[in-house]
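On clarity, I found the account of how folds are encoded harder to follow than it need be. Since the whole study asks how a given chain folds, the encoding of that fold should be made plain. For the editor and my fellow referees, an illustration may be useful. An entry of this sort, consisting of the sequence and the corresponding backbone structure tokens, reads as follows:

:::
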Amino acid sequence: MKIAMKMFLLVVAAFGFLFSAGGSMGQAAESANGIAGVWVGVLGGELRVMVTITKSGSGQLGGTMDSVDQHAVNALSNVTFHGDALRFEVPRVGGVYEGKLKKNGRDISGSWTQTGTPAQALDFMRRTESGATSKGNVEQAVPKAEHTPKPLLPGFNAVIPIAPTAFKADGKWHLVYELHISNMDKWECAFTRIEVVSADAAQKTLATFSGADLDGMFIHPGLPNAEKVSKLAAGEFGVVFLWVTFDKLEDIPSAIAERISVKIGDYPEALSIVMPPTGVDKNPVVVISSPLVGEDWVAGNGPSNTSVHRRALIPINGHAYISQRLAIDWVQAYPDGKMYKGDPSDNRNYRAYGAEIHAVADGVVTQVGDGIPQNTPGAKSLAVPITLETVGGNHVIMEIGNGLFAFYAHMQPGSLRVKVGDKVTRGQVLGLLGNTGNSSEPHLHFQICSANSEMGSEGLPYAFASFEVQGKAGEDNLSLFPGGPVKHEMEIPTEDEIVRFSEHP
């Protein structure tokens, strides 16, 4: 189940310069060269801005907005200059500038708007080749950028929203959790290395992430066009998705910490801090039976550090959750790797369609949803608008003990066989697999979570008592193990594994 929710963070990346201006016919003639050049201005009376506009050989405009005060450079996009009207966007901060070049070719008058803030006046003056502007016949050089002094401590705040629980998959043990990092400094933070260490005197290194690996684990929520880098501008927020693997349960300490190395602004040396300890839950996770029976079930969007479920950080009522942290979209494949035969727009042609969905444990039904019509696979729109009430389509939530809830989504309308308050036994049929809610084709979305809410909860690990892995699903084929299925016990399947479940859940 793929969820896209809009979040935003206000990041002001603006700067400015002292001006001088004046004029001559030669300077006025600069307008004949168009808008390309360096332009300086002051936003809000204090934030200094320098915009460099470039022109390619094909005539396309581009450039950057450069911060002296905050040591951040952001790319411009959709730069246009028609007549005397200039417009450009700064996607990373959600900013738009619109202004008009005056007849003297040196001055631009306009306004800056940014997500979440009212429009502000922002005027620019062209910077001369000497690095100055002119005004009142008094030349004043543009001040040089301030260099970052040696920091006393890194000015970021890092929080682990939910402590990790150890679980087993693919024969190894895993800890999966996140760091929420806020840059509270006026300087950019560039994270160079994150080490997961044991939270004891030895501080044994358990895993190290740096370079491209760290960049791939780092996101900037609310900034979809941000660079895929492990940097935070002043005031910016980021999330690091950590996944640490161990050979044996005994190798996992009872508490862990993170040693974080970061460069502050342009200070040349990285600083390193160790976060406070975080306890690790090493108790056995809940053991469940399968919600499905039979073979060729593909664990679509299943557990991995890059799965869309793993990265689905969604704010609900003022708190951000990952309810789908270890969720699986179960689809059933044919031998050729396709999920259907015949017309792909007909739900009935999908192998998974109509499969019975079983209770994974004894429990009590705490929530149901029914009556939502089915989607047409491949259609440009879904059958109903997606809200918190419709996202799971026709669904069932069960409380299965110890504060855990099992969530089954996207069932056929009218197929539910339980109601709220029903006591359900393991293996009992709850309904039939369908294609409702936020779903593109017939499948079962399944997860274990911490509350009676499909979105407003934390996704937690679990283990199937037994299953067999037949192979791995590719984009267009199934890669089956030549030696036959491999039995796994007390584990969870991982992304795109092909699974065979017992006929007796």
Observations:
- The helical segments are 25-28, 211-217.
- The first strand starts at residue 37 and ends at 43.
